[in-house]
């Protein structure tokens, strides 16, 4: 008997500690994830040299977007196919870790869609970060090799499942099942995006209907009757609801009444459904890529996802200068937004590079060759952003204004405009030290980072990298940055 009060006291203390621990954890999570003040979109831009890489855009209101990093890619894939599409941004529940997962695919390399679908990569590309701005090197995560006859792994997404404490990663794979070859959605479970469970079939529409793009959004207050909603491009844009990520899903409807489909229903044919909840209110936007017409993403909005009839068209939006292709949107806390904008938000001024001894001529690119010309048209061919050097501090690199992600670089001492391929050789060849002009100290000359005995100069109006040995060379190697 005398030990009973002690046991009760210990039990009370343990319960108090448990609730205190829960309260602290909850408060820390709230502090990490609230309030949301902005939005971050990860996307790719198309099948050009740098289009299948990671681009970011920022918005304050979720409708008007500004391209970050001057419209150039922020991350380059150097693994697998060396290209990525369909990036998804993933945040841990505590807000202390982030991942980007993306399709390992580069159509711009000459790969056909048939080869990509039937003999493509069965891995995803993964980046990891603890602050949303400093990212690991990309790595490959094999998710589809366990699927018999898998031809690819496309359009990945991931969502944290509180029921298991794991992330559910889901994507589309083209494979034969029951005698029918088509794209179906599969999933694996992971805690760290390094090791995964065996793949399991997640969505199969039956008959011959394939499905590639699907994305889930959580409705914390279960507005509309469900905790989770998913939108899938399966001939229509089908919306479903569930209270469990890996449980049963109920079909809510599609968007045919709005004249929107994924092809089966005709009308405005779209793909890549991308959810976004507006900060501070129970309202959602569903962004749809109007790929059939090339008009890019459009949003429709709803305050109750329990019926597709609640969606309405939104016309007051702006997606910025670059074309946005299938991606994802992450709501940002004030701290996250501050870090992202400090890293990529500043816009570098636009400059022209004026010749010292032919002052009516400016450095310009034409068909990716580089020379000096007067009266450049279009004007953007002679406009560059002077960026921090790709290869080292205290240096500069010249990024094209109308080809973001392309830089002036020398190749066998000849100058070209080329896409950053992420290699150390490219970075070195596109990096220069800005020094006092060889012909006039009030102007500038640009010493090659990779060949310090050579300078950027023009010769017969063509740009090249030369050793400078006489007065003519000094004049040819002298320039001025001007607006």
TrEMBL record:
Species the sequence originates in: Saccharothrix texasensis
GO MF annotation list: alpha-L-arabinofuranosidase activity
Protein name in UniProt: Glycosyl hydrolase family 43
Entries under Gene3D superfamilies matching the protein: 2.80.10.50, Glycosyl hydrolase domain, family 43
InterPro entries for this protein: AbfB_ABD, AbfB_ABD_sf, GH43_arabinanases, Glyco_hydro_beta-prop_sf
PANTHER family listed in its UniProt record: ARABINAN ENDO-1,5-ALPHA-L-ARABINOSIDASE, ARABINAN ENDO-1,5-ALPHA-L-ARABINOSIDASE A-RELATED
GO biological process annotation, one example: L-arabinose metabolic process
UniProt entry keywords in alphabetical sequence: Hydrolase
Pfam families according to UniProt: AbfB
Domain Alpha-L-arabinofuranosidase B arabinose-binding: 352-480
SUPFAM superfamilies: AbfB domain (SSF110221), Arabinanase/levansucrase/invertase (SSF75005)
């Amino acid at each position: 008997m005398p030990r009973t009060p002690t046991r009760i006291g210990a039990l009370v203390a343990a319960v108090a500690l448990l609730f205190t621990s829960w309260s602290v954890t909850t408060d820390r999570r709230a502090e990490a994830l609230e309030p949301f003040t902005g939005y971050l979109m990860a996307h790719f831009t198309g099948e050009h040299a740098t289009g299948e890489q990671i681009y970011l855009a920022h918005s304050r209101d979720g409708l008007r977007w500004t391209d970050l990093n001057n419209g150039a890619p922020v991350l380059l894939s150097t693994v697998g196919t060396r290209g990525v599409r369909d990036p998804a941004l993933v945040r841990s529940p505590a807000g202390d870790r982030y991942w980007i997962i993306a399709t390992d695919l580069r159509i711009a390399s000459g790969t056909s869609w048939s080869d990509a679908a039937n003999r493509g990569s069965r891995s995803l590309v993964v980046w990891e970060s603890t602050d949303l701005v400093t990212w690991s090197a990309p790595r490959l995560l094999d998710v589809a090799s366990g699927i018999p006859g898998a031809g690819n792994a496309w359009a990945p997404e991931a969502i944290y499942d509180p029921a298991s404490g794991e992330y559910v990663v889901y994507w589309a794979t083209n494979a034969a099942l029951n005698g029918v070859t088509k794209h179906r959605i599969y999933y694996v479970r992971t805690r760290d995006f390094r090791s995964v469970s065996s793949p399991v079939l997640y969505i199969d529409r039956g008959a011959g209907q394939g499905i590639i793009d699907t994305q889930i959004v959580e409705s914390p207050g279960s507005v509309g009757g469900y905790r989770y909603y998913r939108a899938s491009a399966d001939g229509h844009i089908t919306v479903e609801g569930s209270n469990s990520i890996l449980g049963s899903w109920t079909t809510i409807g599609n968007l045919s009444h709005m004249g929107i489909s994924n092809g089966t229903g005709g009308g405005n044919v779209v793909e890549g459904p991308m959810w976004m909840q507006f900060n501070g209110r129970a309202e959602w936007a569903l962004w749809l890529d109007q790929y059939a017409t090339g008009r890019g993403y459009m949003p429709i909005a709803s305050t109750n996802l329990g019926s597709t009839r609640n969606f309405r068209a939104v016309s007051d939006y702006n997606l910025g200068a670059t074309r946005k292709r299938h991606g994802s949107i992450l709501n940002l806390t004030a701290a996250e937004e501050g870090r992202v904008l400090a890293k990529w938000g500043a816009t570098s001024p636009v400059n022209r590079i004026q010749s010292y001894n032919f002052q009516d001529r400016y450095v310009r690119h034409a068909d990716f060759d580089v020379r000096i010309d007067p009266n450049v048209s279009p004007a953007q061919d002679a406009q560059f952003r002077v960026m921090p050097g790709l290869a080292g501090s205290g240096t500069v690199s010249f990024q094209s204004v109308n080809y973001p992600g392309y830089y002036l670089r020398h190749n066998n001492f000849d100058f070209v405009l080329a896409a950053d391929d992420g290699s150390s050789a490219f970075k070195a060849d596109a990096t220069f030290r800005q020094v006092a002009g060889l012909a006039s100290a009030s102007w500038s000359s640009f010493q090659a980072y990779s060949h310090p005995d050579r300078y950027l100069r023009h010769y017969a109006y063509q740009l090249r990298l030369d050793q400078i040995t006489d007065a003519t060379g000094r004049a040819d190697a002298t320039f001025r940055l001007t607006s």
